[in-house]
DNA sequence: GAATCTAGTTCTATTTTAGAACCAGAATCA
DNA sequence: TGATTCTGGTTCTAAAATAGAACTAGATTC
């Protein structure tokens, strides 16, 4: 059967995953953050099948994450650029990156690092803060339902 | 063909997605943060097929995200609890939640809110900071490759 | 002791994904 | 200018992932 959709889910996490949770989507977005724009660049950089890339790019454009614009090199081709909505996925990518760095490499394995453009120092770790600036651990938070209950 | 694996990718984002990027995985983790522990609870809460849930839970245990422990109610059953590695996915979930809240609801639609347990105020937005405390936008960061180049 | 609940397993049907082959229009080369 | 190559796809097949129903053994409750 068709994969179950979360598009109309109550939970924002589920809706996000419905929009950008299929295989390849976030890697395409990651590449877009790294300046990749053209179909062939994505294809070669990711090693993805062309047919798959075609449908993923179409889906991401439909989802409002990417825009299809005239190529910036003046050619008759087009290129894919992040929309505002797409750029706002930056934190998702950074969170995935930090978790991966922390848990998915052996001691002796090197990995790339996200640094700030000016100082070239690694960015600091993401943290959840309360409205009044306290650091919050996962068990110091709660979900309040839409209706205000719980 | 078998879906392409990113387990040995250089990029931490790709490795993360390989580990927790398949359909349902992060929703199971989200439920675990909400205190869901038992097989039947996950199954009913998510509306997932039992067979799918079985393989996802097995994968997450294999990945070190969940642990299978004796049920806390004293029965002979068992329950799934987040490991340290799993708890560290909190930021990923929060980032997905905030993006979804911002971009995937109509004006008139309500959604649940993440609040701090004490004050019951919504948590503040995630932000990327430089080592010296400046807020960084996506285009104020760079990726430095593992070998130190670029 | 019987009925029900829990946590699965197994099966089939459909959808997704990977990969190769093909193709038309744009750009480059000679 | 014409031939060749590059770009950005489309189409096809085969294998894997997912959904859902049916079934089951052991634990718990009635």
Automatic annotation (TrEMBL), chains A, B:
Residues 11-108 form the HTH hxlR-type domain. Pfam families: HxlR (PF01638). The keyword Transcription regulation applies. InterPro entries: HTH_HxlR, WH-like_DNA-bd_sf, WH_DNA-bd_sf. It comes from the Bacteria. PROSITE patterns: HTH_HXLR. Keywords: DNA-binding, Transcription, Transcription regulation. Transmembrane segments: none annotated. This is Transcriptional regulator.
């Amino acid at each position: 059967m068709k994969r179950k959709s979360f598009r109309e889910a109550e939970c924002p996490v589920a809706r996000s995953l419905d929009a950008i949770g299929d295989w390849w989507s976030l890697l395409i977005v990651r590449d877009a953050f790294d300046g990749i724009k053209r179909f062939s660049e994505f294809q070669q950089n990711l090693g993805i099948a062309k047919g798959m890339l075609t449908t993923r790019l179409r889906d991401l454009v439909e989802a409002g994450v990417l825009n299809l614009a005239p190529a910036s090199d003046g050619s008759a081709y087009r290129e894919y650029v992040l929309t505002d909505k797409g750029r706002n996925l930056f934190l998702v990518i950074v969170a995935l990156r930090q978790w991966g760095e922390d848990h998915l490499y052996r001691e002796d394995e090197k990995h790339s690092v996200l640094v700030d453009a000016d100082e070239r120092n690694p960015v600091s770790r993401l943290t959840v803060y309360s409205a009044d600036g306290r650091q919050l651990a996962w068990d110091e938070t709660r979900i309040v339902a839409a209706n205000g209950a719980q």
